Amino acid sequence: MLLRAAFCSGLLLLAGCQQASEPTSDSTLSAAQVADQLSIQYQVLDNQPDEGCDPGKADGHCYRVRLSLTPETHPLPATGWSIVLSQVSYIQGIEGPLELTHINGDLHRLSPGPGFTGLAPGEQLDLELRANFWSVSEFDAIPNYLLEWRDDPAVVIASTREQRDAETGLWQLPHVVPMTDREQQLKRTDQDNVPLADAAQLYARYQELTSRSEAASKAPEFGLIPTPVSLTPSEGESLPLSRGWTLTSNDFHHLDAALDRLSLLGFEPSEQGSAILLERAADLPESAYRLSIDSDGIRILASSDSGAFYGLQSLAGLIRLGRDTLPAVEIEDAPRYPYRGLHLDLARNFVASSELETLMDQMAAYKLNKLHLHLADDEGWRLAIPGLPELTEIGAYRCADLSEQDCLQPQLGAGTERNSPVNGYFSRERFIELLRYAQARHIEVIPSLDMPGHARAAVVAMERRFEALSAAGQAEAANQYRLLDPTDTTEYLSIQYYRDNTLNPCIDSSYAFIGKVLDEVKAMYDEAGVALPLYHIGADETEKAWYASPACAALIASTPELDNLHQLTGYFLKRVTAQLKERGIAAGGWSDGLEEAASQLEGGITSYAWGVLAWEGHHQVHRQLKRGWDVVLSTPDALYLDFPYVADPLETGYYWGARQIDSHKVFSLQPDNLPVHAEYWLDRMGNPFVAADPEPLAGERILGIQAQLWTETVRDPELVHYKLFPRLLAVAERAWHRAEWELDYRPGQSYGPDTDQFTEKDALKGDWQRFAHLLGQQELAKLDRAGIFYRIPTVGAQIRNGQLEALGLYPGLALEYRTEGGQWQPFDQPVAVKGQVAVRARSADGLRPGRSLTLEAEGPQRLAQGAQ
């Protein structure tokens, strides 16, 4: 503990000092008064493990944090208060006069210990915490610490609230001390070789992405994202957009959304407009189309509604804002995979239905067709189920009620209020509207209500139901949907440090609950007129729950096919898949849980494979394909879009599987040949790895690919945009189009940094340049018009011989620079500079600047600076 006296008495009106006044008795202070003036600072000191780390936790890894408390005007007394904070990495211990209690999940409480005698105004108390693993992002810290003060309701401590930068719109955590020390703060282990994305590193990377054996690719005159099978310029003249369009022939349905996008982009309906002919062609496969454009009009041939829809979306894709013509072209096109998906976690932090509609518009524009909605997890239940109102009345909200009588605990910095934007749910009626909205855009909504693990919101809600009905003397009804064995004494911590997040698979009421939920969800789909072919169970991360459950011991003793507790996950999945089959629905789940239960499952399973490739994740993919399962590739190496774009402490998101996933990395994915990535990707620590192929395939192929956005650190709808875009366009590119540079799968071939089997690296660079030009000069402007808050890439720069040189990731975005004390100026070519220089890019419409980086004209490069 360090106590620092603030010498303000006698120094009135100086910065940081308060004018003397009569002290306020702490007995008359409210929680709000204390919380508004309590300054908290959070500083990562060191990521290197030492003798203070608990060897039994996190493989011996831990990091140290200094947490500083300073009451500015009102004292903190010796007793009668506590602070509740979220820390997603479990806090192992504390040094100082406060005591630490782990509440549940990420929630911890700091309370005065016997050695704490109070804190006077201006005094600073420094505490040292040790937490599991490491922290190399300022956004690992969670906002909205709560002050518990005597008998008052808990309130948010003002100094820990998240803020947004007025100029960039990016997020800031003012209570977090900037991380600048590369060795102590920004390196996880001695083997961590991930380069930090400062201006110099990005300049070198952008240069490497444009270097080829031949001259750098020229900006394409026109093009499409995702790339079609073939696009051939024709001899006809281009077609003027100003003429507008008129639909003269149409044999299809569900096209309005695509036609509306034409209008949004300035190609509007007109009675005298160019003719659009939409005609059936029986020889084309599902979702394929042919598109012809010349000065006389537009013709689209397709065999299905989806094919005609995608033909119209390609017509819109050829529009370049600011240009009044469409090129004369012939396009032949068909999708690479039938499954082209996005997973969105609504459970951790909610996303309103209007934002979901905006997202579906963009999915449709780039031909993504599966929206996997994660509607329930430990932190929230987001779908109303008739007959079970507690699921949303309690389970859809997090607030300051730690007893959870009215809401769930305030995990992940949720704050105190039920009306917080991180809370909420879809009513039955609104969900039906969303299903129809998706259908009109040829998107299938795949519901997921995670079980048996990750089910805490449901478990708590059903316990409140049990208590209320029991109190009313309705014992049978109370137990009907209860999810716990009340005699279970199992002690466990889930991977997110919950003690009570798993429903019990050994009691019939769990399956009654699941049956009720499935019936109600199916009824919503039926009323919407939409098929429900696939339901995602979840099925992952049960963490040895039920091991002391008498109900489970009795089930194993009475069930011949069960020998031990390890088989209970498979038993659960087998029963739930049977429930789904009875309703005509196929089952999906995460690959790890399904793999654990593989011997107990029949065919017809869809596995979402999320094993990290550097950890032999491709072995699991191959095994499951060889079992005859449908496999959707969901690899964290390139498809977890909650991970950071670049290795920078000012970038948000988890990074347990990869520290940097920019659009180029997504673009460079070869989904049909997973081992080959060991030649040109690195592991999460920036080191080479080797990928052997002990489970060679014999013609089996994945069903498709799916991007994931988990939202533990996503607390704002615009941050959803920021994390997804523009990376989601690269996902669409790989899901729809197989590039010529992709290496055919070679059964049994091993790959590594020295095998040199992937010989098309120059072709990859050239194709990337084409894609990057289309992003920067064509597509980002469309995202601007649609109101998408995409990430503007940070700029690479170097100063050589006194001249500033700068590069952006996407050609076409305007670059700017500023010398210390000066104004922002356009950067078009190398310019002489002195002292500290900042560089940044602007959005395609020029209205929004991105985050800036600084560098020195003389001396070492500085770390990335600016608001995130």
Q: In percent terms, what proportion of residues is strand? A: 15-25%
For the record, give the distance between the C-alpha atoms at the N and C termini, rounded to a whole number.
31 Å
From the 3D coordinates, which CATH architecture of the largest domain would you assign?
A: Alpha-Beta Barrel
**Proportion of residues in helical segments:** 10-25%
The major beta sheet can be summarized as: 8 strands, parallel, barrel
Keywords, separated by commas or semicolons:
868 residues, 19 helices, Ig_E-set, disordered C terminus, glycosidase, 36 strands, Immunoglobulin-like, CBM2/CBM3_carb-bd_dom_sf, disordered N terminus, signal, eight-stranded parallel β-barrel, Chitobiase, domain 2, 4 domains, EC 3.2.1.52, alpha/beta
Description of the molecule:
The chain is α/β, with parallel strands linked by helices. It folds into 4 domains: 3-172, Sandwich (Immunoglobulin-like); 195-219 and 792-868, Sandwich (Immunoglobulin-like); 230-333, Chitobiase, domain 2 (2-Layer Sandwich), CATH 3.30.379; 339-759, Alpha-Beta Barrel (TIM Barrel). 24% of the residues lie in helices and 21% in strands. An 8-stranded parallel beta barrel has the order 21-22-24-25-26-27-28-29, surrounded by 6 helices. A 6-stranded mixed beta sheet has the order 13-20-17-18-16-15, covered by helices on one side. Strands 1, 2, 3, 5 and 8 form a 5-stranded antiparallel beta sheet that branches. It is globular and about 85 Å long. Belongs to the glycosyl hydrolase 20 family.
